[in-house]
Amino acid sequence: MLSISTKVERIVTESPFLSEGLRRGLINLSELARQLQPQLQNDLWKPVGQAAVVMALRRVAGRLPDKDAQELVLAQQSGQLTARTDLVEFTFRRSDRIDECHRQLLERSGTGHGLYLTVTRGSEEVVVICSRPFIGLVEQIFAGERLLARLENLNAVTLQLTADSWRTPGIYHAILKKLAWDKVNLINLISTHTELTLLLEKEHTGAAFSVLSNMIAHKH
User: Fold this and answer.
1) Range of the domain at 41
2) What is the pLDDT of residue 129?
3) How far apart are CA 28 and CA 207, in angstroms?
4) What is the rounded distance in angstroms from the CA atom of residue 60 to the CA atom of residue 135?
5) Could you tell me which residues are beta bridge partners of residue 186?
6) Which residues pair with residue 190 across a beta bridge?
7) I want to staple 33 with a disulfide (CB 3.0 to 4.6 A). Which of 43, 53, 115, 209 is the partner?
8) pLDDT digits 0-9 by tens, 15-64
């Protein structure tokens, strides 16, 4: 059975707002403990005192990395940011023919200089993200496939990383937590060895660019 401390730590670490708020000292521990009591008692199947929850929150807050340690995460990166606009995301149900659709799309799209096209194949779904000029081609090639979702008016912000960024524990977590704290909603993530691309609704692009720029600025 989980202890109160373990459960409280799990709740905090799963919420970027709680962990950031505790780290910054912005949260009233007694009030947070009072709000967490019903959930803890339900999950642990036993009475939970407010004082015990406050003590657990203090322990968790003391173990959270300080501000300087978090900002060092992006200090190892090249920090180059690029943006792409007017993208569309298609999600199709995976079928026996979907691989052939993928092959045709890559073959017929050509180099597409200055345009964006990426295909992600999951176990049950296939996602195509493309610039608007490719829409007609995608619709034609995937005409016989089951379309699950179509999202338009999306933008992408790409952060260029260094080749050894994979050695940095929690690098994606630090970036995503900062975006969540600033209420930036992400539609999708696309990563390669040296790039992290964030797909967003148009209205959130400026905020995402600002957040990432501020994180990068701390390295100079």
Assistant:
1) 4-64
2) 97
3) 28
4) 48
5) 200
6) 197
7) 53
8) 777 887 787 787 889 998 988 998 888 888 888 898 999 999 988 888 77
Strand ranges (E), the chain: 81-93, 117-121, 125-131, 147-160, 186-191, 195-201
What span, in angstroms and rounded, lies between the C-alpha atoms of 217 and 220? 6
Query: Total structural domains in the chain?
Result: 2
Tell which residue, 192, 186, 130, has the closest CA to residue 160. 192
159 backbone dihedrals φ, ψ, rounded to 5°: -105, 120
Contact 57, 29 (CB under 8 A): yes
- What residues have CB less than 8 Å from 55, skipping those under 6 apart? none
Separation CA 30–CA 54 (nearest Å): 6
Other CB atoms within 10 A of residue 133 CB: 14
What is the mean predicted confidence (pLDDT) over 136-159? Answer: 95
The strand pair at 186-191 and 195-201 is best described as antiparallel
Same domain? For 57 and 16 the reply is: yes
Residue 182 sits at φ, ψ, to 5 deg, of: -90, 15
Last residue of a domain, one of 64, 83, 102: 64
- 134 with 113, same domain: the answer is yes
What is this structure's pTM?
0.68
* Helix, strand, coil tally for the chain in percent (to 5): 50, 25, 25
Residue 69 forms part of a structural domain:
no
Average pLDDT, the chain: 85
